[in-house]
């Protein structure tokens, strides 16, 4: 899953990005409203963490511009604790949730997981397909109860496919949603990661749909 953090405080921006990357997300960062709006307009994100008090273009204006342009990604806004009016403005502009400053990083992570679950139509942090279970809260994958060790890229790929379970996902969409701007976006890399995932999982849950992409679905024997 690919996220965008827009926060003008360099230390807080770095801390947010580090925590999100440690939780298994690909993260792009912006430090002002104009840069953040541009990234949101030109890149594909599964969710955005947006500070409202930004230079060059305030967060409310950024959010309003995205929503008017039809951008529907979930947005978690960061507000000053005593500025209740900012919360109201944020929701009216199209925000999905908010966290007041100062905050605990665990709360930001939990609220983002909830936003991503809702976007995927999922009620819990656990995604199951046949014997494969992915716990987004713990960042853990098991097959028939046995833990599976994945690299960060492999985990991101499986998590995204599990969020889109039952839907064909193209290679281009995977690249857009999984990797930050600095990643080598060669589609052959996706094939390598899919091959590694299949080998590590040991079960046939990742199907190749010729000419279209990949789909996570329970093995045929378990669907009958």
TrEMBL record:
It comes from the Bacteria. Signal peptide: none annotated. Residues 124-218 form the OmpR/PhoB-type domain. GO terms for cellular component: cytosol; protein-DNA complex. GO terms for molecular function: phosphorelay response regulator activity; transcription cis-regulatory region binding. The modification 4-aspartylphosphate is found at residue 51. Keywords: DNA-binding, Phosphoprotein, Transcription, Transcription regulation, Two-component regulatory system. Residues 2-116 form the Response regulatory domain. GO terms for biological process: regulation of DNA-templated transcription. It holds the Pfam family Trans_reg_C. Residues 124-218 bind DNA. PROSITE patterns: OMPR_PHOB (PS51755), RESPONSE_REGULATORY (PS50110). PANTHER family: REGULATOR OF RPOS, RESPONSE REGULATOR PROTEIN CARR. This is DNA-binding response regulator. It comes from Blastochloris tepida.
């Amino acid at each position: 899953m690919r996220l965008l953090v827009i926060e003008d405080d360099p230390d807080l921006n770095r801390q947010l990005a580090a925590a999100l990357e440690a939780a298994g997300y690909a993260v792009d960062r912006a430090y002002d409203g104009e840069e953040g709006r541009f990234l949101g307009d030109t890149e594909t994100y599964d969710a955005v963490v947006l500070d409202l008090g930004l230079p060059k273009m305030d967060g409310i204006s950024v959010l309003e511009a995205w929503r008017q342009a039809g951008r529907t990604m979930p947005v978690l806004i960061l507000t000053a604790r005593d500025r209740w009016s900012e919360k109201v403005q944020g929701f009216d502009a199209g925000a999905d949730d908010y966290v007041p400053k100062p905050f605990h990083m665990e709360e930001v992570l939990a609220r983002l997981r909830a936003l991503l679950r809702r976007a995927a139509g999922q009620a819990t942090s656990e995604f199951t397909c046949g014997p494969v279970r992915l716990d987004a809260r713990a960042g853990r994958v098991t097959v028939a109860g046995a833990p599976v060790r994945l690299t960060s890229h492999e985990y991101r790929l499986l998590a995204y496919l599990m969020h889109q379970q039952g839907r064909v996902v193209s290679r281009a969409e995977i690249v857009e949603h999984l990797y930050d701007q600095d990643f080598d976006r060669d589609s052959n890399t996706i094939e390598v990661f899919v091959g590694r995932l299949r080998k590590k999982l040991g079960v046939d849950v990742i199907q190749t749909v010729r000419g279209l992409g990949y789909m996570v679905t329970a093995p045929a024997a378990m669907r009958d």
